[in-house]
Amino acid sequence: MTNSINEIENAQVILVSGSNTTEAHPQVARRMLTAVDRGAKLIVIDPRKTVLAEAAHIHLAIRPGTDIPLLNGMMRIILDENLVDDLFVEMRTENYYQLRDMLYRLDLDEVARITGVELDKISRAAQLYAQAQKAVICYCLGITQHICGTRNVQALANLAMMTGNIEKEDTGVDPLRGQNNVQGACDMGALPAVFPSYQPVSNDDYREKFEAAWNVDLSPTPGLSLLEMTHGGKDGPIRAMFIMGENPMLSDPVLSKVQETLTHLEFLAVSDIFLSETAQLAHVVFPAASFAEKTGTFTNSERRVQMVRPAIAPIGNCRTDGDIISALAQRLDYPMEYDSPAEVMEEIAMLAPIYGGMHHDRLEEGWGLQWPCWDRSHPGTPFLHKYYFTRGRGHFVPADHEPPSELPDKTYPLLLITGRIYHHYHTGTMTRRSSTLNRECNAALLQVNKADADRLQVRSGEMVTVTSRRGMIEVAVEISDQVQPGSVYTNFHFAEAPINKLCIDTWDPQAHCPEFKVCAVKVAKK
């Protein structure tokens, strides 16, 4: 996030795109609704009529996968209405004229046709956002989990820079992270092409720094992406895997490919707190300690690094993640010994510049620190880009529409959208062991518009089969006006209805993020 979560409450306009915030990030949604109570205007871009969309002043119910045309249309209207922040564009950005030229070539009537949103609504949303002194954009996986996810994000960045809604408090572009500490994992180099603090492995100076610190030779070649590993099949490039706290047998797309890969590995080790679907395939399972049994840090969506303290000692034979990794390294003849998690943090501060001032003794005080925090005297950074962008000037990147890689046809006439629900989290490894949460929701439901339900002759509660070109599942129907005719919606929390059997195995060519959000399916009554 460029800005802090609490700043959302002070925004005058909040633009939410691709986020079912009330269910996936309820504490962030609470701040959005508090802002609305104080007079802020809420714009929601979502194919579904979610609870947040119903609370919005403007709901732009786009066709799935048409975010770029919509955002380009909004920018064209801002251009036509002379609402561009010319001073910010001139002083802080580059490549604006290339974007402007592309926008001038847009046909706004065509934008309305592609997106399925009335031009008047697009115009009202564009003017509302651009006229605000403080406007914030929040987005989530509904933006990124598309074949054009990177360009979706670039289009949002274009919109923010064009109107000067960046570099200052209560504005910004805020991605809402999908999992706890996923920001911290990325910061620490859990990506195929970078070391900690996003230092490229291909850079000789960075690589030499880490080689000297770790006393090893490091490859300049980026590693494999998630799908390159889990979709390799029986003859894939990976012979062994160590999977920590992840459940790809339910969370990855095209589960038949994932199962083929994992079952043909020469060796699979899994470290987890429960015997997940993935752990059941492992040769060795390490019982890991939970968050409540260890010391360390988490980094949340707003870049805030916070201490985690143990409430209890590790139960039975459970060991912390750090202990497991260190013990494995020792057995592989690499001496990895730390006296404490605080010593690990000292190494992070030494090697990862954005964490340069992060030390346990500082983090033990207050609510943590937000990176970049360059040294011990630095107070942390509540919002980014106050004086400059990391690359110098903000770079406009014109983005063209690219439809989803699979659209409905006569054989598969419906578009499946996937997402999360309030009561369960990710693959349900933890939440589905809660009797209270299961009481609230104990099975997947397929939301179907009444018009489609009438055509299929199905009623709420009846079981149907949902089939794509890659697999089939059985699930109960919920007739709902949250989805538009031609679309159906469900979530991926339930192993009994593993929705990712159906998803397509395409991904964004830049970020390598799978296109989870849309694929073509057919629905039939059982």
Protein architecture, described:
The chain has three domains: 5-171, Dimethylsulfoxide Reductase, domain 2 (3-Layer(aba) Sandwich), CATH 3.40.228; 182-370, Rossmann fold, CATH 3.40.50; 414-525, Barwin-like endoglucanases (Beta Barrel), CATH 2.40.40. With 526 residues, it is α/β, with parallel strands linked by helices. The mean pLDDT is 95. Helix 4 (67-80) runs antiparallel to helix 7 (108-115), helix 4 (67-80) crosses helix 8 (119-131) and helix 4 (67-80) packs parallel to helix 10. Helix content is 31%, strand content 17%. The strands form six sheets. Strands 16-20-17-19-18-21 form a six-stranded mixed beta barrel. A five-stranded parallel sheet has the order 3-2-1-5-6. The radius of gyration is 24 Å and the shape is globular.
Task: Set out the fold topology.
Elements: E1 13-17, H1 21-24, H2 26-37, E2 41-45, H3 51-55, E3 58-60, H4 67-80, H5 86-92, E4 93-94, H6 96-104, H7 108-115, H8 119-131, E5 135-139, H9 141-144, H10 149-162, E6 172-175, H11 182-187, E7 194-195, E8 199-200, H12 204-214, H13 226-230, E9 240-244, H14 248-251, H15 255-263, E10 267-272, E11 284-287, E12 296-299, E13 304-308, H16 321-331, H17 341-351, H18 360-363, E14 369-370, E15 394-395, E16 414-419, H19 435-440, E17 445-448, H20 450-456, E18 463-467, E19 472-479, E20 487-491, E21 518-525
Low-pLDDT runs:
none
Query: Count of helices?
Result: 20
* Structural class computed from helices and strand pairing: alpha/beta
Cα end-to-end separation: 45 Å
Global geometry: globular
Overall radius of gyration: 24 Å
Under CATH, the topology of the largest domain can be stated as Rossmann fold
Mean pLDDT: 95
- Per CATH, the architecture of the largest domain is 3-Layer(aba) Sandwich
What's the CATH first level of the largest domain? Alpha Beta
Can you list the strand order of the major beta sheet? 16-20-17-19-18-21
What composes the largest sheet? 6 strands, mixed, barrel
Number of structural domains:
3
The helix content is: 25-40%
Strand fraction equals 15-25%
* Count of β-strands: 21
